[in-house]
Write a structure and sequence with these properties.
heterodimer, A: alpha/beta, seven-stranded antiparallel sheet, seven-stranded mixed sheet, about 30% helix, disordered C terminus, B: alpha/beta, five-stranded parallel sheet, about 35% helix, about 20% strand, globular
Chain lengths: ~300, ~450
Amino acid sequence: MYKIVEKRQLAPQIYLMEIEAPRVAKSAKPGQFIIVKMDEKGERIPLTVCDYNAAKGTVTIVFQTLGKSTLEMAEYQVGDNFSDFAGPLGQASEFIHEDIEALKQQKIVFVAGGVGTAPVYPQVKWLQQQGVQVDVIIGARNKEMVILEDEMKALGATVYVTTDDGSNGHKGLVTEVLKGLIDNGAQYDHVIAIGPMIMMKFVAKLTKEYNIKTTISLNPIMVDGTGMCGACRVTVGSEIKFACVDGPEFDGHLVDFDEAMRRQAMYKTEEGRAVLEAEKSSHKHTGGCCGGHHHE
Amino acid sequence: MSKTRVPVREQCPKKRVTNFEEVCLGYSLEEATQEASRCLNCKNAKCVGDCPVSINIPGFISHVKKGEIAEAAKVIAEASALPAVCGRVCPQESQCEGKCILGIKGEAVAIGKLERFVADWARENNVDTAQVEPKNGKKVAVIGSGPAGLTCAGDLARKGYEVTIFEALHEPGGVLVYGIPEFRLPKETVVKSEIENLKKMGVAIETNVVIGKTVTIDQLLDEEGFEAVFIGSGAGLPKFMGIPGENANGVFSANEFLTRNNLMKAFKEDYSTPIKAGKKVAVVGGGNVAMDAARTAARLGAETHIVYRRSESELPARVEEVHHAKEEGIIFDVLTNPTQVIIDDKGWVSGLRCIKMELGEPDASGRRKPVEVPNSEFVMDVDTVIMSLGTSPNPLISSTTVGLETNKWQCIVADEETGLTSRERVFAGGDAVTGAATVILAMGAGKKAAKAIDEMLMGKK
């Protein structure tokens, strides 16, 4: 059993939970994900790691309620247990294998959309702690939906916020902010975009024009998360990759986003669909494809 | 002496295709003793030689003859920790039963059905077959809780070792749980109880531990005090054909389809994991896994086809499985090979383009090679395609264990007799070494490795 030691609501529909999982906490790296299963009859839900503390033996996850399973998960309280919590899964972010001095010479910008801000956090944290100064663009529907802004600032990152309605920061899309920064002279070497699929698609489209290396993170449908089921297969360049073991991070200029979006909709139930319909008007920043759960 | 076996009762095909309960109902005590009485108790019993775990077959059958079922169970337990499983899924026709003298002029003794009867009876009557030597204080780690791992763990526990099994999924059992369907191998009554028997012998099972990710083999040896490791991680990676349209919505690997249904219990309404079987399903492949996928799809209400590129006599599946599948209405489209998945405007499967095949010259496997019949392409009207083309070992362990040698198929290289790998104190066996094979061969490998680990740690060699 895996105990919930902290729970916070970060935004309407977005929850943070810190879970006791010592083995996972000890091995987790930025970019990786875990699979949580609430009880005997629950689904295996893949969620990107938001933070981890090896000394305390805990792992932090952030999720958005989109349908039956995630709504049920939001009902769990501090002291409750999840029956299963497996990980860390997938490959760690590429930069953790790079030379720190070389990283310090690079200009890295993160583009975080909605609940996708959560998996950006451990990457920014790792880099800032190694002395690598990074920029972060956080996009959300409105002020209320912006998460982890203060936490990112506390790490020392330069944070730009943009919202659909202008209630926090810039009014408009993350791609506009990114384009503005580039056009005003920011010499970015690497863009790391995590958020709704449609956002990542358009960030990659923009950075392709500027020829800037771009990494995105997928969170497709999966069952086991260890390479067994092949449900998470994605076309990258001319190759078929399994997001769970080859990813979840891939070269944004090579991913077939249209196919990935189509596959993500495979198990959507009426309920999940209704939620998405309601959010359609502002789908650029929200939607649930990141850090969320995809069987609904 | 009857030349034919006592027939075994089965659920009638029309009824069983609407449920997930076990197809074969097994022998009664009376039927079992009657069938056992056919055994000639050969002095030089050929059946034993062809059993990968060398069960004393005439020995246990002679107890069944006399109605001494608990004694029979103890005889089997000396060699096998999973008799209720083996009695159900072993390919007896090509092993023990294939060598039975009675098979020359009539039907072989139904050894598998007798083993199953004994194991089920022992479970229902709480026969304790777990005899464990005093603890010797030595720790061994077993990776994977499928047939290889369970067997290795059981044999070592019996010898007094402190064994911990690490399982990546949330439920122990490996392929017995995620792969083989309920209607061939009941999970709650059969698999779980055999695993409980191991726990009673002191085997610890840690689930949700993905070796190579959560913890490495080196950490187990260097930091956690294990003196040897056995890798029985199976062959879990699905293969795809590489044809156009294969990433369409509605194309699944047999692994995904079966895991959703078996491990995640998608067929039960109160479980949350969804499954889509569609209305018309093509299962591509001809092995036991293809039969399992097809029969599962049929139970979920689909018209189901097996699409296989060779002819029926080359089907790699067991004869019994093919027979059961046909009884359940599965349509066999043999000498047929898919060339393209046709996709509708929303990205879903709307058909499967296939080409007719004919058999040419024998290939490397000795089977006649299928060749395309020119201009014979046609489109099958299906909305779901399940690829059942075989599996290969998962590289998660080999890629995170320095010095662990693998071959070009990603199989771990291990000594055939001992299971020893290129790494000291690290042994391997089962599908992780051989590629996809059978439950009983994996058990045989687990057994050999347990013996070798014992000899190494006790300094016998």
